[in-house]
Amino acid sequence: MNNFKTKMTPFLFIGPAVAILLLFAFLPIIVALVISFTDTNLVGLANYSEINFIGIRNYINLLSDGNFLQSIGNTFFYVIIGVPLSVGSSFLIAVLLHLVGSWLASTFRVIYYVPSVTNIVAIAVVWGFLYNQEYGLFNYLLSLVDIGRIPWLEDPFVAKLSLILLAVWKSNGVSMLIFLAALQSIPRSYYEAADIDGANRWQKLRYITIPSMSFATFFVTITTLIGWMQFFEEPFVMTDGGPLNGTNSIALFIYQEGFQYSEFGYGAAASFILFAFIIIATLIQFKFRNKDQSL
Amino acid sequence: MTLKRKMVGLFLFGVIMIALAACSSDDENTDENTIQVWTMSDGLGDFVTEYEEETGMNVEVQAIPWDNAHDKLVTAVASGKGPDVLQIGTTWIAEFAEAGTFLDLTDYVDDYENLGAEHFFDSAVASTKFEGQTIGIPWYVDTRALFYRTDVLAEVGYPEGPSTWDEMIEASEKLAARGEGQYAIDLPDDDPQFPFILAWQQGWDYEMDKQAANFEKSSLRDAVALHHLFYDKGYSQLGEGKEFFQAFSDGSKPMFFSGPWDIRTIQERAPEIEGDWSIRVMPSAENNHSMMGGAHLTVFHNSQKKEQALDFINWMADPDTQIKWYEFFSELPANEEAWEDPVLADNEMVMTFGEQLEATQPLPLIPQYERIGGELLDTLEKINRGGEDIDEALEEFISQADSILNR
Fold first, then answer.
1. How many whole angstroms separate alpha carbon B105 and alpha carbon B109?
2. Which residue from B106, B212, B330, B360 has the highest number of Cβ atoms inside 10 Å of its Cβ?
């Protein structure tokens, strides 16, 4: 009896966490998977007997849906430009903040973190003004150096870059904090030893700082990557996917199908494709990391 | 862990669970004299106190912003838990009616003084009919008309505003020729109703049995071509540009189509042009039809208080109530008798909308309406901004409409 008790105790402790995870994470995923094989819409939602099982027709339709393919293309564009940019810039900010004095560092830490805690709708209003083609601040500044008006949000290609700029600015804060924490946990003795060996600043960065932060970098890269694959808020509040569907992302496409047009089955299928992309990207990164450690 | 501590822990856990349960449980109102009303009109809550005093009923009003209303209604449909009285915008009727959201009122309307079809605008009543059912009672109506700057239009020879599309094009050419940054008219690029209004004016109509073939009619192509002309020739600005009311005030965009709410907006945002602007009915091509928009009051399908709900709707549809509602919120009465009241009859601008309301058409009552309207807007964007050929873009639109209608 006592033995049984000892064996069961760990399960008792992890039980609630596992139960919540099953209920709120795995169950919805499974339900979504089932829905993605049906033609559930508003009518089906009101009356379950109207729901039909249609196999993989949603997936086939998606692959021939121009808007969806375009939003996949846009999402990859966001990821390829956005992830290196936001990881790189937050790393740079963290290293620079680590170099300067503590008074300056804590002030700027707050400044860089503020965008992360600011409401996206407020950000959208302010950046909407900044990007305004007629009297936005950016075009005004450019006009001072005789550069013509840039259609920040009016051209499909430029609008993508504008949204990336906004998202990098907004997301820097969190990654920066993680990098700063990692920087502070590097033992000072490494640097002291390097000083004795006569290493310069660049060598210390290259051979001590960067390798010591590999786990933080890995973590930030994965979370940033997942965040960018689910890119949603910025196009939702700034452009609603336009112009010409040029800023639509997969996540926004899912929202439009599922919630604006009530095509729940179709939206669920699209969300599974996004899910697959994220899993694949994460697995590839884990693979790289394993290789890294074996060296 | 001592027993006492365990007890405390258990107790706390229990309290939290009860609190959670209390949050999630909907307070089912069994009280006979209380009805729940969901509306998108903030302010109805205060407005109904008069009804409460008259009848001793208790009306619980929940105001939902338009942006969240669709999600909220979807949730209500999915869970089967809705209010007793529900406001619905005319564009969502078919979609939610198909899902069986509303009680069929056909057998009830004759029992109440103000609910009969004869009291309301014909197109408003037409938009409450879905597959032979009467799913709601018109509450307020709205339509689109032409706002214009009298002084600016007088300079190009149209002090009364253009009355046909030919005149509109002629005036626009002169207005756009005034120089860089000068336009003729601001066309709504995110209003899915607008392309349909243009199409009706070209004689187009949506016939239920023809489905996607409706969009093959040449009248729709005429409307799209007309729309494109304004961007192609630079009569209208692509993209947002200046803050709109500023542009209207400085005369760089002296015309726009909008609804009655913008009367007040102009008065507030551009008081300096008082007396220099007016409203007229739509310019005509084949006709000068505009849309019949607005909102209806409906009864949720499983409401336990049909009688009370209908009594409340009957009060809302009363001409006196309708006039009061107009005075408070500038929303136009659906009840035609209310329009004879001097509050409306003596207001020239509002009467222009009254005149336009006589020439309106209900929007196509199909569940996929929003979807198709959105696709049509995308198609227009492809033509105007993306430079696609009109016929190719329309062909693509027709095949999309076909797959949407037959999904």
1. 6
2. B360
